[in-house]
Amino acid sequence: KWRIHDVVTYYKAMSGEERKAMERIYATINDGLRSEFGKRSIQEVISGERSEIMNTMTNEANRQLGKFGVEVVDVRVKRIDFSDDISDSVYRRMEAERLRVAKDFRSRGAEEAEKIRAKADKERTVLLADAYKQAQTIRGEGDAKAAEIYAKAYKQDPEFFAFYRSLQAYRKSLGGEADTLVLEPDSEFFRYFGSQKAGRK
């Protein structure tokens, strides 16, 4: 952007023709940019120093163009054209940087996924441990209750309790169709077979 700051000087220098003013301004800015870019590396040009270059160019252009009655208000670079070799180098650097960033993101993602899996495994272990503990508690309470019932039954009628336990033993030992036991007729196992007490109600 530019403007006329001294009308008389402008008309004397440019004959009032805007085209001449534009050509002069363009040539001054173009030469100045080439000079400034030549002082810096590619990385500096395409990074944070661009604003500094623009400010320097604006001041230098006004120093040179003031004698023509014009003032440069603002300088902006829309595109930077490099040679093929330099362009390839810039693109390779940009590609390498993007790959580095992508790799970093993937690494962070994998690390976060591992943390989530570890947390899930820990929670699963805790849940299983709690469930097992609860099951053992319930089983223990059931066994204690059963023992209490057996104890009461034995206390009320020891002989009947012994008979009942014998029936349970018979059921477990002779529960299958192919089960075979070889015992003496007077074996303790058949204590209640034929017993008069076994027939009572």
Descriptive account of the structure:
The structure is a single chain. The chain is mainly α and 201 residues long. The chain has three domains: 2-81, no CATH class; 82-156; 159-201, no CATH class. It is 69% helix and 3% strand. Strands 1-2 form a two-stranded antiparallel sheet. Helix 2 (18-38) packs across helix 4 and helix 5 crosses helix 6 (158-173). The longest helix is centred in the middle third of the chain and has 73 residues, at 84-156. The model is unreliable at 196-201 (pLDDT under 50).
Secondary-structure blueprint:
Elements: E1 2-4, H1 7-14, H2 18-38, H3 42-46, H4 50-65, E2 70-72, H5 84-156, H6 158-173
Antiparallel strand pairs: 1-2
Quick overview:
It is built from six helices and two strands; from the N terminus they run E-H-H-H-H-E-H-H.
Please provide the count of β strands. Answer: 2
Biggest sheet character = 2 strands, antiparallel
Class computed from helices, strands and strand pairing: mainly alpha
The tally of structural domains comes to 3
Return residue spans where pLDDT drops below 50 for at least 5 consecutive residues. Answer: 196-201
Strand line-up of the largest beta sheet = 1-2
Average pLDDT across residues? 75
Radius of gyration from the alpha-carbon trace, in angstroms: 50 Å
Please write the string of helix (H) and strand (E) elements: EHHHHEHH
Shape: rod-shaped
**End-to-end C-alpha gap:** 118 Å
User: What proportion of the residues form beta strands (DSSP E)?
Assistant: under 5%
Fraction of residues in helices?
Answer: 55-70%
Number of helices: 6
